[in-house]
UniProtKB/TrEMBL annotation:
Source species: Natrialba hulunbeirensis JCM 10989
UniProt protein name: ABC transporter
Recorded superkingdom: Archaea
Similarity comment: Belongs to the ABC transporter superfamily.
Domain spans labelled ABC transporter: 4-229
Keyword annotations of the record: ATP-binding, Nucleotide-binding, Transport
InterPro entries attached to this UniProt entry: AAA+_ATPase (IPR003593), ABC_transporter-like_ATP-bd (IPR003439), P-loop_NTPase (IPR027417)
Annotated stretches, region: Disordered: 302-322
Ranges in coiled-coil conformation: none
Gene Ontology terms, MF aspect: ATP binding; ATP hydrolysis activity
UniProt keyword tRNA-binding, yes or no: no
Length: 322
């Protein structure tokens, strides 16, 4: 059953298309990473889901309700940690949570919530004296009130240290285990990959890929760079700028020449031995062989760079192309 669905979702501000024809499906109970650089369109998408703004075209649904037709029903089922939230400086942490409980007509124990977000010791401190990370934890605690079916978290890691993020990941996993859907929007890949079941990558308003983190990793395992260090005193007749015919090999996607080495991008690991033979056949002497694995960071950078200029799309096995 789907928790969140968008179909051709588009939002224009004048000439600017903040999101373009976004088709997205998030299943119930999954922790879904909504990934993209600044200005990608993440907050715009979230604002449409909450009916804070209306789409120019397309539609969205949250737990089968259309936010435009039934905004109240949608918001009642969502716990939201917004990108920009405001706290009341003079109210304590506990008073904030009590306020959220009353607003939601919920029966939560405020101290239990404060404990879960690591603020038990600061419950009676005024929010005006909280650090940024403490404020973020408090806003997250308020989002948990009433055990919402969908948690929408816009940049939840902002201001939170690595230990804190570990606690928050545990908390989000508990939420998913009780059946909640977690929609985790972030530009920080390392946060998303550590917790999410599936991720999508949005850039310039367009959905570039949807995949499991595992499939993204698998696709990277088959993408590597072979670095061949050549004899520093090669045959003087050897053309150092030559690509050694490597680009004629299928699955060699790029060749870069440094002073003493060749960096050969391989789309398939099986091509490496053919590449080495090809270089040696031209009379060059290979003195060292190294393999650089691509990281998820590389993939994210590649997906979100020049996507509008016809860069080659990256397939994520088992994932969808958007
Ligand atoms: N009210 C608005 N009027 C005009 N343009 C807007 C408005 N809101 C957003 N935009 C533009 O829409 C695009 C998407 O913005 P959005 O805030 O959705 O990105 P984002 O992915 O959430 O970015 P960030 O990670 O920085 O929060 C940006 O180019 C932004 O400038």
């Amino acid at each position: 059953m789907t928790a969140i669905e968008t179909d051709g979702l588009t939002k224009r501000y004048g000439d600017l298309e903040a999101i373009s024809d976004v088709d997205l499906t998030v299943e119930r109970g999954e922790i879904f990473g909504f990934l993209g650089p600044n200005g990608a369109g993440k907050s715009t998408t979230i604002d449409v889901l909450l009916d804070f703004i209306r789409p120019t075209a397309g539609r969205a649904s949250v737990l089968d309700d259309d936010p435009q037709e039934n905004p109240r029903a949608v918001r009642e089922q969502i716990g939201i940690l917004p990108d920009e939230y405001s706290l009341y400086d003079r109210l304590t942490g506990r008073e904030h949570v009590v306020f959220a409980i009353e607003m939601n007509d919920a029966a939560d124990d405020p101290d239990e919530i404060l404990e879960r977000v690591g603020l038990a010791d600061a419950a009676d401190q005024r929010a005006g004296d909280y650090s940024k990370g403490m404020g973020q934890r408090l806003a997250l605690g308020m989002a948990l009130v009433g055990d919402p079916d969908v948690l929408i978290l816009d940049e939840p890691s902002s201001g939170i240290d690595p230990n804190g993020m570990h606690e928050i990941r545990t908390l989000l996993r508990e939420e998913a285990d009780r059946g909640a859907t977690v929609f985790f929007s972030s530009h920080a890949l390392e946060q998303v990959e550590a917790i999410c079941d599936r991720v999508c990558v949005l850039d310039d308003g367009e959905l570039l890929a949807v995949s499991t983190v595992e499939n993204l990793r698998d696709s990277l395992d088959s993408r590597s760079v072979l670095v061949l260090t050549l004899d520093a005193n090669p045959d003087p007749d050897l053309d150092l700028n030559d690509d050694h015919g490597l680009l004629e090999l299928p699955d060699v996607t790029d060749v870069e020449r440094t002073e003493t080495a060749l960096r050969i991008e391989c789309a398939d690991p099986g091509v490496k031995s053919a590449a080495i033979s090809r270089v040696e056949d031209t009379g060059a002497s290979v003195v060292d062989i190294d393999v650089e694995q691509a990281s998820l960071e590389d993939l994210f950078a590649e997906l979100t760079t020049d996507s509008t200029e016809g860069a080659d799309p990256i397939e994520t096995p088992g994932g969808e192309r958007a």
